[in-house]
Amino acid sequence: MSPTTLQSTLLPTYPTPRVVFVEGDGVHLVDADGTRYLDFAAGIAVVSLGHRHPAPLAAAHAQLDKLWHTSNLFATDPVRVLATILAERFGGAQAFFCNSGTEANEAALKYARKATGKRGVIALEQSFHGRTAGALSVTGQPSKRAAFEPLLDGVRFVVPNDVEGLRAAMSDDIGLVLLEPVLGEGGVIALDAGFVAAARELDALLAFDEVQTGVGRTGTFFAFEQLGVTPDLVTLAKGLANGLPIGCLLVADAAAGAFEPGDHGSTFGGNPVACAAAIAVCETVDDELLAAVRANGERLRAGLAGLPHVVDVRGRGLLVGVELDVPAGPIVDAALDAGLVTLTSGANVLRLAPPLVVGETHVDQALTILREVM
Ligand SMILES: *Cc1c(COP(=O)(O)O)cnc(C)c1O
């Protein structure tokens, strides 16, 4: 079936895809014609260990052969083990599992309301938290919200890293401050430790949306570890199960106790196959891999800084943004034609989010292709 036929029966919520991929292999993708591409998009920072990584592959296979679904009316081992692993990584937390990043943020919004009795939220301009009504309400990109207003009220948007603006936005009705440690869709802007510390001082719950930055992407398991602040709530999703759908809200023990049976739920949440894959991912993201993520991220950023059209190179670990003096879309298209899969993050920012397992040679290959393309 041609891509055109495929697209015509899908609602046009995405631009028409230019390539049909049929196979993934580590840091490479293969299209229907057998052409290999170096994948520096990883399905939007999702395939964190690379395509068909043996650890989550074996874990998911084994679980597929045992048990697929029970609902949360019953317990399964994978969901309990995964919750324990994440609680240990966080340093004391309880988990709620769902199926996507936007769902994890919906859970955080409800949790904060129930815990504080307040409906006000401070979020960031240019932020992205998802497409469902609550998550969209706190997304700081007016063009994504406009056609769907009115959404939740009581949301105040602050410029990233503007400490005075943050303090000025605070008031008695604010129960939640929701931040991405690195704004993944909004231009790959990393928050300063000082700004995050100021957010922590406010009398509200602090949530980090680590849907894109979590699970090693920035060179530490959670990006907040580099900011010297412990949040009350963390949301995870993209990289957690290497491509199987999963989302997670972690509630720190310090903020525990707001949800009771009946307050929230998800039929598919905690799916045993997705959780089995996620356990394998968490076990693979060890200190050695995290050190490699930091080193390869630095190598990538250093190489990018010398390329034509580059105004600024940003990000942490292997979540990298390149601000250009030209639109990023045509660069992404040209890179794809040259065998490199990349992303944008806003109109003039090229975003690179390769699998965390890339090596130096892959980084250098990507730089060579980008140099030619630019
Ligand atoms: C992708 C993303 C979301 C939304 O996740 P979905 O799985 O697409 O619902 C939310 N927050 C951040 C920071 C993201 O990058």
Brief write-up:
With 374 residues, this protein is of the alpha/beta class. Helix content is 35%, strand content 20%.
Provide structural commentary.
The protein has 374 residues and is of the alpha/beta class. The chain has two domains: 3-52 and 286-373, Aspartate Aminotransferase, domain 1 (Alpha-Beta Complex); 55-284, 3-Layer(aba) Sandwich (Aspartate Aminotransferase, domain 2). The protein contains 13 helices and 17 strands. A seven-stranded mixed beta sheet has the order 4-12-11-10-7-5-6, sandwiched between helices. The mean pLDDT is 97. It binds pyridoxal-5'-phosphate. Pyridoxal-5'-phosphate (PLP) is lined by residues 100-102, 105, 128-130, 180, 184-185, 209, 211-212, 237-238.
Comma- or semicolon-separated keywords:
single chain; 374 residues; alpha/beta; Aspartate Aminotransferase, domain 1; Aspartate Aminotransferase, domain 2; 2 domains; seven-stranded mixed beta sheet; four-stranded mixed beta sheet; 35% helix; 20% strand; globular; binds pyridoxal-5'-phosphate
- Structural class assignment: alpha/beta
Low-confidence stretches: none
Physical arrangement of strands within the biggest beta sheet: 4-12-11-10-7-5-6
Characterize the biggest β-sheet: 7 strands, mixed
The total count of helices amounts to: 13
CATH architecture of the largest domain: 3-Layer(aba) Sandwich
- Find the count of extended strands (DSSP E, 2+ residues): 17
**CATH fold label of the largest domain:** Aspartate Aminotransferase, domain 2
Instruction: Tell me the Rg in angstroms.
Output: 20 Å
Helix content: 25-40%
The rounded distance between the terminal residues' Cα atoms is 33 Å
